[in-house]
């Protein structure tokens, strides 16, 4: 157990260093801005006085390392600065949008993970049959489709033709949970299509990999039913790669929401990021980029840690 | 080449047909297109007719024409970006593998950090700082994508680098560049070619997503991702115009994937 903790500790430290480096990159990125943020934002027609005042407001007159220190200190207090576009505090803009994004990603995960595991098991059970080939073709095509294609097909089908779901996922704080779930169902389904494909293929591959082991043959020889072999003998032993791929896909979900949020005009962090990039609202871009990156790195870390924990070989080795 | 094609499975042939069609249309765009790229010729969102084969878009431009020019812009952009990404990734990967030691550590750790950052978010941040112009777009995506190419080409070159003929070249006194060019590259070709197909798909989808978000190619240039965005409003009226460019994107990616699948099958030596 001790050396698992050591491994986990090492891996977490690496993630922490990565986040630190990324915060520097994000900070330097703004430094690289051709000319000056102040001039870029205010435009060519700005007078030298307004540029000067704006520079002071952004503390651009201080040396970079001092500003980086101050920025990091503010961040740790939850102060993300103020938006250039509307002067509101960035933390206020981001807060509930990030919650919305997590809600959408969570909904998608809730549908996608069980679905992917069941489909993966079925495909492994019926491997090399017509059913398996069908699933394989469908998932392969979902991987090659752009997300907005799937999104618009779903809209055309469920919102326009059948008229049972709204084509825009508008939600606000006063809505009940049921209404919220109803509103985000189409975007969640879109994301489900995208991530299920990856997860299901990985589950199938992991189970089939285990099926060639001697203890599976032993169970077959004993006369255990095939479905039982897959569920109780093969699946638990293929858990490590499966958990890993699930966590990786959750990381993908958190980032992949960006396009889907734009399609469904969903008030999430991704939509905010895209809008801010178009408006070149640098503080908002910095803050939401850092949040996305941290969430992504955290989930990747979880992927590694969990697959270390469920792998008995790593738990017991005496090194 | 033709003998190989004759033996290819039906899926690979479909893939070739799709890619060939797209490339031909892209190359001969001005000859095939019925109207000019940006000329307004009809009413907004007209339906299919003899005059406008695929109807018209949100400004009344012929959709067929836009699709044809879109193929040209989108495919060319993705191709140039993938090529640049490969030049960058393969040369860095090969250098890291043949030099080893500190060079390898240095490149690999930098790449680790870049890869820990979600690609789309990274690209959005760079575009917000540098502005969404075509050179920025190409370089940003090429650099981000080259990290994946680097990983693969480094791993492949590591395997080749320990073989006898590389050792012989070293003893002969050949330089680093010569070894990379004449000993490693030819032997690393099959996995790299397959990877090129996969990376092209990825870059193509990525550019489409960025254009869809309004940060890729800027109007009035036609490109498929941007066309989906421009016509997105139509779908709530039951007009399926945005599905056409979106389907074209999906179609081409599936085509390339079919070829890559076949190629991987060939180079893995699993012959029936």
Brief write-up:
The complex is a heterodimer of chains A (319) and B (272). Chain A is mostly helical.
Structural class of chain A: mainly alpha
Q: Provide the CATH architecture of chain B.
A: Orthogonal Bundle
Terminal-residue CA separation of chain B: 19 Å
Return the CATH architecture of one domain in chain A.
Orthogonal Bundle
Task: Please count the beta strands of chain A (DSSP E, at least 2 residues each).
Answer: 0
Largest interface: A-B, 50 and 40 residues
Total strands of chain B: the figure is 0
Order of helices and strands of chain B: HHHHHHHHHHH
Which fold name fills CATH's third level, the topology of one domain in chain A?
MetI-like fold
Largest sheet of chain A: none
Treating each run of at least 4 consecutive H or I residues as one helix, how many helices of chain A? 14
Shape of chain A: globular
C-alpha-based Rg of chain A, rounded: 24 Å
pLDDT < 50 stretches of chain B: none
Inertia-based shape of chain B: elongated
CATH superfamily of chain B: MetI-like
- The domain count of chain B comes to 1
What is the top-level CATH class of one domain in chain A? Mainly Alpha
Overall helicity of chain B: over 70%
Helix content of chain A: over 70%
């Amino acid at each position: 157990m001790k050396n698992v903790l050591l491994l986990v500790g090492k891996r977490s430290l690496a993630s922490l260093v990565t986040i630190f480096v990324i915060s520097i990159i994000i900070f330097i990125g703004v430094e690289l801005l051709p000319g000056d943020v102040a001039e870029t934002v205010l435009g060519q027609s700005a007078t030298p006085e307004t540029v000067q005042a704006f520079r002071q407001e952004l503390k651009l007159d201080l040396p970079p390392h001092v500003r980086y220190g101050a920025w990091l200190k503010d961040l740790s207090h939850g102060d993300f600065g103020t938006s250039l576009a509307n002067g509101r505090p960035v933390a206020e803009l981001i807060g509930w949008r990030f919650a919305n994004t997590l809600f959408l990603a969570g909904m998608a995960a809730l549908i996608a993970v069980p679905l992917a595991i069941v489909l993966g098991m079925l495909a492994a059970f019926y491997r090399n049959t017509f059913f398996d080939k069908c699933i394989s073709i469908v998932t392969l095509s979902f991987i090659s489709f752009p997300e907005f294609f799937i999104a618009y097909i779903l809209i055309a089908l469920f919102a326009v033709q059948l008229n049972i779901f709204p084509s825009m996922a508008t939600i606000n704080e006063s809505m009940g949970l049921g209404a919220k779930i109803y509103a985000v169902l189409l975007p969640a389904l879109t994301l489900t299509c995208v991530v299920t494909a990856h997860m299901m293929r990985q589950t199938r591959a992991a189970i089939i990999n285990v099926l060639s082991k001697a203890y599976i043959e032993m169970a077959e020889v004993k006369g255990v039913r095939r479905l039982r072999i897959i569920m109780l003998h093969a699946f638990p032993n293929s858990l490590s790669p499966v958990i890993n791929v699930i966590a990786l896909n959750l990381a993908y979900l958190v980032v992949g929401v960006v396009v889907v949020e734009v399609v469904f005009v969903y008030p999430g962090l991704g939509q905010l990021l895209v809008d801010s990039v178009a408006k070149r609202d640098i503080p908002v871009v910095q803050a939401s980029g850092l949040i996305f990156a941290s969430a992504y790195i955290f989930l990747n870390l979880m992927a590694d840690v969990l697959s270390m924990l469920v792998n008995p070989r790593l738990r017991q080795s005496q090194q | 080449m033709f003998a190989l094609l004759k033996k290819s499975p039906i899926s690979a042939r479909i893939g070739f047909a799709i890619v060939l069609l797209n490339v031909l249309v892209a190359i001969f765009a001005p000859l095939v297109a019925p109207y000019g790229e940006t000329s307004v010729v009809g009413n907004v969102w007209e339906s299919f007719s003899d005059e406008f084969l695929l109807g018209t878009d949100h400004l009344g431009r012929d959709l067929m024409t836009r699709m044809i020019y879109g193929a040209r812009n989108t495919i060319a952009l993705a191709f140039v970006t993938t090529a640049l990404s490969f030049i960058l990734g393969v040369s860095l990967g090969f250098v890291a593998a043949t030099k080893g030691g500190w060079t390898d550590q240095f490149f690999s750790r930098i790449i680790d950090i870049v890869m820990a950052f979600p690609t789309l978010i990274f690209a959005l941040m760079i575009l917000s700082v540098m502005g969404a112009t075509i050179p920025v777009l190409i370089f940003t995506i090429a650099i981000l994508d080259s990290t994946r190419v680097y990983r693969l080409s480094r791993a492949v070159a590591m395997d080749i680098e320990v073989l006898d003929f590389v050792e012989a070249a070293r003893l002969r006194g050949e330089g680093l560049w010569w070894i990379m060019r004449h000993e490693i590259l030819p032997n690393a070709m099959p996995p790299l070619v397959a990877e090129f197909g996969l990376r092209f798909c990825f870059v193509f989808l990525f550019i489409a997503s960025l254009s869809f978000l309004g940060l890729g190619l800027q109007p009035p240039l036609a490109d498929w991702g941007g066309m989906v965005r421009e016509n997105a409003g139509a779908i709530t009226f039951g007009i399926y115009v945005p599905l056409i460019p979106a389907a074209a994107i999906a179609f081409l990616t599936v085509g390339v994937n079919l070829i890559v699948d076949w190629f991987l099958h060939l180079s893995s030596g699993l012959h029936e």
